[in-house]
Each structure stands twice: as structure tokens, then as C-alpha cells.
Amino acid sequence: MKIISAILFGVSIVTRANTVSPPAKIRFSKSRLTHIFNLRDQEIFKVFTDVAATPEEGSELSDFTYSMKPLNGALEDFDLDLSLTAENLGAASKNVGFSGKAAFEGKDFTFSGPIKSFEMKYALDKKYNHDHKYEAWVMQEQPVIIDIQEADLKVEGADLTP
Q1: Residue 114: what pLDDT?
Q2: C-beta separation of 69 from 96 below 8 A
Q3: Rounded to an integer, what distance in angstroms lies between the CA atom of residue 109 and that of residue 66?
Q4: What's the rounded Cα separation, in Å, for the pair 75 and 134?
Q5: Residue 2 and residue 139: Cα distance in Å, rounded?
Q6: Rounded to an integer, what distance in angstroms lies between the CA atom of residue 52 and that of residue 63?
Q7: Closest alpha carbon to 137 in 145, 149, 129
């Protein structure tokens, strides 16, 4: 069966493959891939905008929402640090902050602070395809790391100390 791919990142691929053959391999320039990634990495903030969180049962907290934003600079200028090594395949930043609002015992308050580390990663692993008899690299999504230090949390409008 003949497979023709569209022009992708300035690379055109034409290959001939049977259904029992391993997939085609493609090499990309790291600088070009990083540039393309950084054109759209601001989209991550849309995922983390006005996120409603459910406090634990019995908690005095309610109406809890938060958003992430760049700490410094404009949103359109924000770029995640992209890593493309086998040991570290993902994106991270130390230029991310958060802000939000909630109510404690019925009284509204706001909170904000920096995120010490924000990381999204994939782990590379090999998986054998028994149907087609070849071993392939697979990417397994890892948990997103959002490291916030309690000492950096700023709260206005409520006293949350025990």
C-alpha cells in the first residue's frame, strides 16, 4: 500500500509500506520543532483558566476557582522550555504563577503566588507489537507537576491560619 504524507514542517515524505512493516521514521530539526511548539504553547493557559476545584468534603472552603498565568511578560510572549531528550521529553517553566478566588466560612478571599516549577513530561518506553512483529518506541504521559511553596502563597480577604 502506498502512503503519501502531506507537507509537514517543511518536510515531505513518500514511502512504500506493507501493513506488516514498522512505521516510517522521520527526523526533525530541534530548532524548527521548538519554534513551531513555541508558536502555540500559550494555549496551556486556556486549559488552566478559571478552573473550578472541589474542596474536600467537610471543608470550610467553597466556590474555589484558579487560573495560571505568566509571572513576567505578556501572554503572547510566553514560551515553555521544550526538552527533546530521551531522558526528558516534555516542557517546563519557572515563569508561571497562579491566582484565584474562593470563600472560607462564607467570606470571599483571593489568593495568588508563583509556581516554583511547572512540568509536563512523557516517558519513552519500548513496546513490542505482536501483530506486526516489531518493537516500537511509545510515549507515556507522566503526571503534570505543579510545585507551589506554601510560603509563597499570598491570601487577601481571609485568615486561613489554624
Answers
A1: 96
A2: yes
A3: 12
A4: 44
A5: 26
A6: 8
A7: 129
Residue located via cell numbers 474536600: 56
How far apart are alpha carbons 101 and 65 in whole angstroms?
A: 6
Rounded Cα gap, residues 91 and 42, in angstroms: 12
**pLDDT attached to residue 21:** 60
pLDDT digits (tens, 9 = 90+) for 29-71: 888 878 777 778 888 888 889 999 888 888 888 899 999 999 9
Reference 148, options 104, 120, 118, 111; nearest CA is: 118
The predicted model scores a pTM of 0.66
Q: Say how far residue 53 (Cα) sits from the centre of its chain.
A: 18
Is residue 67 within a helix (H) or strand (E), and if so which, with residue range? strand 61-70
Q: Extract the residue ranges of the chain whose pLDDT is less than 50.
A: 1-17
